[in-house]
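Would you mind writing out the residues of a protein together with its fold in token form for me to study?
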Amino acid sequence: MMLVQLRAKLSNSSSVYRASGGSVCIGRSPQCNVVISGAAAEVISAEHAVIEWRDGQFVLRDLHSSNGTFVNGARISEAIDVEEGFEFELGHPGVVVLIEKLASATSRGQSVAVRNSSPFGYYPDATSAPAESKDSENVFRPLPEPDGAVDSKSHQADEKPIEPSGTRAILLKTVARQRNVYWISIAIVGFMFLCGGAAIWYQSWKMEKVAPKPSYQAFEKVLKSTVWIHAMQANQDIHTGTGFVADTDRRWIVTNHHVVDGAVKLKLWFPDFDETGHPIGDREHYINRRPIEGTVLVSNPKKDLAIIELTSFPTGVRAVPLASDSPRLGQEIFAIGNPGAYQESLWVHSAGRINVIQEEFDHVFPDGQHINASVITASLDATFQGSSGGPAFNSSGELIGVVQSLKHWEKSSSGLTPVVKRNCISVSEVRTLLSEHLPGEAN
């Protein structure tokens, strides 16, 4: 069973038809479910077209009419699927028909009278029922309109669009909601990926700006001139630290005073390199190898600097040149250290920028050592205990300071703030130490 509501659009008016049955025939004949008469009927055949329920779908079929049934200006030759809101034309030009309502009566649990038989033979779903006249409830004339024909424009302005109802309406709304949720989810995920990518890019850019890398040649040059120092007393290590070559002819190494303070014996190692040219960082490799011995030649506690004289010197090693320009705030700074007593790897490289320059840093450390020297403070990202005495250099490989002490905390308006910064004795103090010990012959 099916229920149909059609609107026939004429030249200056429109008429509404309602019909029910196993199928709905449209034409001029009084035997049709929808009978179209008047001047508009001239192009319409007696039995022009039929709407049927077939295999779970409403279809429109032309009944071999003289002037044809048209959809979108094209004449149809076989049954086509239709639904609410579908338009077709009887003849061309002819009567335009809009399907306003379309439903299967049995699906709604309704009981509708159906023709027993048809002289046209196109009611395949008809069941037994008493024969009915042309005026029965299955034959529908145009609904009466006030004052006769109704102007189509004014009629359309007054009428409300017919919304789908029942199961079909629920399904349509559910599908629309799911589609909206899907696209909203896609937009949210895309936005999250975009934000994540932007954050990663920004962090990478920031790290490149904050922690620049020196040229490989500068790092390699300074690394070959760096030493790992063990300060010993009674055959036991009392300090470990780092130093660098200050004068090759005199076999001098510069380091911190607190690295060698109290030592009666010094053991030093220069870096070894593997077959790929990378420095060997394993502590055991050096401990099992014969060291170079040295003695403290001069030491200055207030400047926290010392000169070690070695008994021998490897070939091909150069002194680290002293920078001619004074350090500047924000300048790039790099360092090499040997935190060997606290982690396995030696020859650790760190990078950062100068934060503070103090021409006269006056401080007493917990062990009682009193420092009064020109100091630079830098945010170095990988310096640990054991890095003291190591070279701090610029991107050209020139010395700008000697790593001295590690700052873990800094005073602020909210109290103590954790930091990772290093104080470095300025290169000006190194130049003065060398000049005072051998005037006129410092690098």
